[in-house]
Amino acid sequence: MAKRGELTALLRYRRAQVDPVDAGLPRRGGRGRRAAGLSQAQVAQLLFRTERWYGQFERGGIDAPPPQLLEDVARVLRMNEQERASLYLYALGQEPPDRSAGGPQDDPAHDTPAGLSWAGLLDDVSPHPVAVTDVAWTVVAHNRGFAAFHRALVGERAGEGTPDGFNLLHWQLLCEEARERQLLGWEAEWARSAAARLRYSLARHPNNRRLRRIEREVLADPRAEAVYRECAHTFEPERHSHPIRLDGWGSGRLAILSMRPYSVSRTWLNIMVLEPEPEPAQPGVAGA
């Protein structure tokens, strides 16, 4: 069954981002204003479907839409790979075919993340902080750089534990220290993409208890709940960075580059790239 609320929110969000003129259609008009994005009727026209049919699809009322139709929708609404994957998850409850391989992705049940040894490997991967997380974004392995990064995150609470078990989504959405001091511009810069990642992860792993617990905490927190309900589909481009300030590290912009190791799709490899804030220019001596 389609996840109707999530599907509707995703499709409405994407419609609003596409300029009808860029799609070869007249811009929508109205009394004294211009409506943003494509209308349902315009999307239906581009899909060669009736407006009634598309309206029903957008409400999640079409059971088991064919994959080719979803590909057409993703193309018309100019979805990136994350949005395309969410479209399949919300409409069909499964991952999309892998475009690069030309076939469906492997069944996650066949993954063997426990069989891959990370000991000593991550320090060779990158001088930047690196953490391996499970599907719920909980750290299961890390390098020395991430251990130092984690100490800067928890500050005086550093004695509370090692980075193993630290959850990146919980930190970004619910940690008060992060929201007030560390993650600058929290709501606009950090929370929206973290909320989108939580919804996507839940759609892919609906029975994961850690993800469900984080969602319950988010819904019980007024600040996080407002962002989660309103901004669930703000997917960020590759290497998008956000402003951050950490004790001992200073201020700058942090990009978290997340990727799946080959054949181990139930883990994520996360590389933290911190670009320090430029030092203020020092007054120089003329002619020096």
From TrEMBL:
<dbReference type="InterPro" id="IPR041413">
    <property type="entry name" value="MLTR_LBD"/>
</dbReference>
<feature type="region of interest" description="Disordered">
    <location>
        <begin position="95"/>
        <end position="116"/>
    </location>
</feature>
<feature type="domain" description="MmyB-like transcription regulator ligand binding">
    <location>
        <begin position="120"/>
        <end position="230"/>
    </location>
</feature>
<dbReference type="Pfam" id="PF13560">
    <property type="entry name" value="HTH_31"/>
</dbReference>
<dbReference type="InterPro" id="IPR010982">
    <property type="entry name" value="Lambda_DNA-bd_dom_sf"/>
</dbReference>
<dbReference type="Pfam" id="PF17765">
    <property type="entry name" value="MLTR_LBD"/>
</dbReference>
<protein>
    <recommendedName>
        <fullName>MmyB-like transcription regulator ligand binding domain-containing protein</fullName>
    </recommendedName>
</protein>
